[in-house]
Amino acid sequence: MDGLRAVNVYAIETEDGLTLVDGGWALDASRKQLDESLASIGRTVSDITRFLVTHAHRDHYTQAVTIRREVGSHVSLGLGDRGNLDVVRGGSGSDPTLAQIRRAGAAEVAAGWQEAMGGQVPDPSMWEYPDTWLDGDHQLTVGTRTIDAVSTPGHTQGHFVFADLAAGLLFAGDHVLPTITPSIGFEPAYADQPLGDFLGSLAKVRAMPDLRLLPAHGDVTASSHTRIDELVAHHDERLALCLASVLAGRTTAYAVAGDLPWTRHERHLDELDVFNSALASMETMAHLELLAARGSITSTDDGGVNAYAPR
Length: 311
Hints:
The protein is an alpha/beta fold. It has 2 domains: 10-94 and 130-224, 4-Layer Sandwich (Metallo-beta-lactamase, Chain A); 103-118 and 231-310, Arc Repressor Mutant, subunit A (Orthogonal Bundle). Helix content is 37%, strand content 19%. The chain contains 9 helices and 12 strands. The chain has helices spanning 28-39, 58-71, 82-90, 96-103, 107-117, 194-206, 224-247, 253-257, 274-293; strands at 10-14, 17-21, 48-52, 74-78, 132-134, 138-142, 145-151, 160-164, 169-173, 212-215, 297-301, 306-310. The strands form 3 sheets. The chain has a 5-stranded mixed beta sheet. A hairpin with a 4-residue loop joins strand 11 (297-301) and strand 12. The protein is globular, with a radius of gyration of 20 Å. The model has no long low-confidence stretch (mean pLDDT 95). This is MBL fold metallo-hydrolase. It comes from Nocardioides panacis.
């Protein structure tokens, strides 16, 4: 559905066993790959004593809690993601994403989303609460290493990155990805200003030393600073394009999204499938809400749809 091909999971060896940064997705193929990868370093899942999970998305969190039930590993997760787990575990049957898609003015996309996703009930066993909630910036001891746990809301409200400053490493999760920008505004419990949060978190990590970037997707690269600068420039450009679209008379996030290029191939919104059309609409809404917060445009509620106009 989302085109995901791989998730990077990092193993830190300690005298007490392995600490894994992220756990992967609880799928048969993912578990097979994890078992084979651990075997290549002479380890098994029984050696995993701890998971430091960057955020509560299924491709990072669900395999960690599944393995915890099997071998008793300790799982840590950012406190800001508790609201997301509460929604997923609530079992109400309602999909909070639908309301956000409609708020973006994308009624047809919402209908397609409901048809595609209707009836899917999350398995609560994959969304159990962690053993420890990470709250605010602090340091963790991982074997002989001191790891800085840094709160980086944006992709999700509870996202954390983990920095080993002595070794010059940044375990960046989805906060800083080497070739794409993470989705903004797509989580069960929505933030008021997800893009503002994300840019603030980028500034926080940019203020740290330049570190080797170990992302959750894609290749390891040499410089966190270089990629953060590229991400900030990307969103500056998107904000400018969104503002120009509103000034040209577009009034909803969905209409603005239709003026923007999508993916590295610069596709039109009409070329995207339902899942990615929904993400595009919600991410555009996040950009527009930040422009409104900055006073560049106005945002009003028009019958459950956010309506935008030049200030």
